[in-house]
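Worked Example 4.2. Consider the chain below.
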Amino acid sequence: MHANAGRLLALLLLGRAFLFGAPAFAQEEPEDERTTAPADGEEASADGTENEGSEDEGSEDEGSEDEASEGEGSEDEADDAEDPAADEPAEDDYELPDDLDAIDAGEDDWELPGDLEGEGGSDEWDFDAALEHADENAPPDLPIFGETTFSLTSTTRAQYRLNNYDGNDLNDDFGSLWERLEVAMQGEELRLGARLDFFLPVLEDGCPEGLEESCIESDIRLERFSAHWDHGPWTVDAVDSYAVLGRGIALSFRRLDILGTDVALRGGKLAYDDSDFFFKVLGGAANPQNLDPNTLAIIDRPADQLRRDLWENPRSRDWVMGGELGYRLPGFELGAHMARYLFAEDLSTGFREQTDLDIFGWHLEAPRLLGGAVSFYGEANLARRQVDSDLRGQNSNLGRAIYASIQVQASERASLAIELKDYRRFYVADDVAADPHRVYSAVPDLELDTERPENQSNARGGRVQLDYGFLPGPWGISAAVLSYGHAEHRESDDLDEGDPWSNDGFWLNHATFKLQKVIRGEPGAFDWTFDLLGGYRDDRYLGARDGRQGGDLHWRVVHGTLETGIVLGQHSLELSIIHRQESKWNASKLDFDDYVRGSASVTYSWQGRIRGSLILAWNDEKRGSDVPTYYPGAELRVDFLDGSFFRAFGGAQPGGRICSGGVCRDVPLFVGGLGELVLRL
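Applying the procedure from the previous section yields the following structure tokens:
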């Protein structure tokens, strides 16, 4: 009986490493926080371990790096195993597993593995040796951290840029090297992460004295350091972290890959969530990524060091403090939030100007109304802006931002989505024309990512979308209509001045239709996809100005997108064509500017690990100048190991104006080549 009990305990110890084994060196990160979707009210770690995604070189030079992921080790469960001998079973009741029970050997002939056998023989074996064998692959158990895993990600990018046609000869015809090194250690409750950025321009002529701001400069710095502690319902973040209140309308510190911005909160954050009651408090200074991946310029305003010397003016930074609290009832969530911003002093005009902003808001969410057929989210924010100027004195105004969305699952095949927005003098920045890295909100503009919306600080209207799937087949259709008024920003608080639907405004209408075929389940030996989108966008004056009358055309866009692909076993081939015909009124010359924009690409992929693309883009917005119209290029990406890859691009991309989340920026065109290597350990 004792021999059988010892054998069973030995099997439990040997099998522990397989049944309750420790994780690999770098594993899936707990989904307590993530980066991207401020629109969903979630947050992400700011040390650079979240997925950055791949980007087009023309619109976003930031690299297509996927960040390292870590996970917590499994608990040591050997101590919880029960001793089989405690139940005193009979010897005949116990049998060895088939793979250990030799047919022509008696029970007494079976022996423990040699590395577990004690000096006294097979019946007197070494328990410590057995435990050591079972734990040899477990992560180290460190003080404070407990079982700890480590990760390291190295991103190296080398590129050479030719003329970018921005009128500055000092940032043309040069090479550069950008290294990003990220390390993290994940314990059972505590996680530490750091990111070091190094940038060096090479093959560059010297910078003329006094023109340093127009030149490309070298830079090395500890860009991010984060400490995250998670214990039951409590979470604490220190130094650098991403943050969001509500859906991100009042406050959103996040990364926007499409714009090339990455802004963290350098300070602290305390949160509590027990599934019913939740609250969050935060405070600190804005910490934008200092290297602009699109221009390769170094961002030094606002300052991101909490204090560089004893006598430094603290108002050289953008400060924020805020909080959120709420309660969840069955099927409902109700919350309230507030934020106060103290923006850095503006001395660009030679006169000091100081802006403060207070925002108070609430949200209501009901994700499963009528048995889950209807979901609702609504958020309202009231803003009060105060400006203290040496030139214009003190003034203040009020603003608001109201957003609501309703989704109805009418049947298994049909769904309806409705979104409404009402924004009035609402922008979370020191100025309506602030740089994108100093806009601390994610306002839903209801537009497609390919559009260039205007005047989102004053906009009111809505969007309706209907989707229908021809189940059980693979085909589906979608139709959407967007209609809203928008007006240029005005500082005045008069009731009618600058209202989106006044004579100062524009009336925008945008209709789209999509036909789509998808692959359901695993693709067969041969399968294919199809996605065709067409749209018409019309923007008109509501009042007489700029040499136009009310109802006259301001901006017209006709656009179409075709994306199709075939799958042949491990091979796939994709075709993408985008074309836009645009006509916009130019008030300075009292005539329309007509231009086209678009691109076409063919991509071959093998097993999803090797991808090669041929690309041709076109844009004649600046025809008549020396700016090119056609932009050919080629890209190759090879994925190897887990999350590591190499990417190379050569050619040109048109750049231009890009927008996301109500924020827009102009990106210079790119002509040259780059190579990027991402290694994850």
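Helices lie at 2-19, 127-134. Residues 2-19 form the longest helix (18 residues). Compare this with Example 4.1 before moving on.
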